[in-house]
Specification:
Layout (H helix, E strand, L loop, with lengths): L45 H8 L4 H17 L12 H14 L10 E6 L1 H9 L1 H15 L13 E7 L7 E6 L6 H12 L3 E4 L4 H42 L7 H13 L7
Parallel strand pairs: 1-2
Antiparallel strand pairs: 1-4, 2-3
Helix pairs in contact: 2-5, 4-5, 7-8
Length: 273
């Protein structure tokens, strides 16, 4: 599924029934890091357990984990000791990171609500590899281009649920015109989003505007080229009709002669003057 969106903690924590706590300025100890720069889990990771039971999914799962590690590295959070954070601090920390993950430029209007269960929060806080998977899934998911961008797409809504393991994740999305109208789709999304962290992709609108301007310019050039080709086409057909007349043919139906000329022209016949 193609998901997407930006929060109010990093630019807005929208749609939550709880007031988001601000991260306090506390001193964090750094945990040991592995070769990839991520924190070493204190306990067995649910990611490792999932791969053990689903070896065929290892490549895809590790793609998500590495993407999540890149999110932490990009924002200088790869060695933060979340063990010394309170749960409210940790939730604000993750909310902030989720809000920094960009959406594909072709998704400037998308909105996404993320839910993490209490057990999910606990697992992420104590399992850096699973935390990376959640961040990485979000990064990869938001990076999927909208195939309908530039063709009247109004964007989409998405809702993602994360639990204490990969198996517990589920998500879905739908067009902002789902149900036949924008108001119907938004009402549905708002009803589903209560208590979650809602993110909007508005920060990508400048990029999207440039992409749309480029698309319009390409369409204009294509239309101009086709018009020029059509004019040349008509010139050749008129030339053919004129030549038939010069050769003594009775031109009773000019349209028929033009169709004849067109058939010759389209099959590669070249008339020599």
């Amino acid at each position: 599924m193609n998901a997407v969106s930006i929060n109010r903690w990093a630019n807005g924590y929208v749609g939550s029934t709880k007031k988001q706590n601000t991260v306090k300025k506390t001193e964090h100890k750094e945990l040991p890091v592995n070769e990839s720069g991520s924190r070493i889990p204190k306990e067995k990771s649910v990611v490792t357990d999932f791969i053990r039971r689903n070896p065929e999914s290892k490549s895809r799962v590790m793609e998500m984990v590495k993407a999540g590690e890149s999110v932490r590295k990009t924002w200088g959070a790869q060695s933060v000791d979340t063990q010394n954070m309170s749960m409210s601090e940790y939730q604000a920390y993750i909310s902030n990171l989720l809000g920094k993950i960009p959406f594909a430029p072709s998704r400037p209007y998308d909105e996404e609500t993320v839910f993490i269960s209490q057990e999910g929060w606990e697992q992420m806080k104590n399992d850096p590899e699973y935390e990376a998977w959640v961040l990485g899934y979000t990064k990869v998911n938001r990076s999927v281009p909208d195939p309908f961008f530039g063709m009247g797409s109004a964007g989409s809504f998405a809702v993602e649920h994360f639990g204490a393991s990969i198996e517990e994740h589920n998500g879905h999305g739908y067009s902002k015109l789902y149900g036949g109208s924008a108001s119907a789709a938004r009402s549905m999304f708002q009803a589903e989003s209560g208590g979650g962290m809602t993110y909007r992709a508005s920060k990508n609108r400048d990029i999207a505007k440039k992409l749309e301007e480029k698309r319009v310019e390409e369409e204009r050039r294509k239309k101009k080229r086709l018009q020029k080709e059509r004019q040349e086409h008509m010139r050749l057909m008129q030339q053919w009709t004129k030549q038939l007349t010069m050769q003594g043919h009775q031109v009773h139906d000019v349209q028929t002669d033009r169709q004849t000329a067109l058939s010759f022209y389209e099959t590669g016949f070249l008339f020599e003057m």
